[in-house]
Amino acid sequence: MPERIDQSQFWTEHSKRLDALSVDDLSFVHSRAVSDVIWVQRAFNWELSGRREAYARLDVPEANVDVGDNTVMCKAEASILVSEFPELRSPRVLEVGGGFGNFCRVLHHAVSPAEYTLLDTPSMLRLAEAFLRAHGINDCEFMASTEIERLRERQFDLFVSNICLSEMLPEYRKRLLELALPRCSYCFVIDGDGRNTEYNGWLGKQVKACFSTVRIFPVRTPWKNQKAFVGEK
Prior knowledge:
Layout: H1 7-19, H2 32-35, H3 52-56, H4 70-84, E1 92-96, H5 102-111, E2 115-120, H6 122-134, E3 140-144, E4 156-162, H7 170-180, E5 184-191, H8 197-210, E6 213-220, E7 225-232
Parallel strand pairs: 1-2, 1-4, 2-3, 4-5
Antiparallel strand pairs: 5-7, 6-7
């Protein structure tokens, strides 16, 4: 996403492009509309704090469509999650900003979730539902980003969000975390901005307010230097 852009205006216009995509097959993952917000086809050297061997061992089949390095990225993120929470079995997962669903697909193979709720814009959820259905994953709940007050009625084991929270409008992000984090036993977020220490500090404070054990450490991503915010109660 271009920097210094009104995010609400961006998503209003971008959602129209996503809504125009056909879901009759999975070719939408190669569209410019998707690649503008989700890393799919570009190559990169993914290190993630020396965990290359760990994510290489994750038993995750390739997607039914060529998504380039996106699966490599998702496996790398999932490997950190599994190594941080080795006791996690069949969790109830809330993923914020799930994109077209590839991380959800990978995490299904890694931890066999009992429940999985994807929260994103309605236009992106439409693509995620088609992508996951094509991979035999039919047990997800899709919650539109306009419905976050429904989280009051829910409990989850794991809150997960990868490179998404920093793209939200501040007031929306604050309300989302107020609703979601207290209702989760574990938190796994890859986010942050290497140039914005104020935001990094704010996000760390939100995690520390809800979880008794918190670990924050740097991870390298294709976009910029991110941090992992890991919490457990």
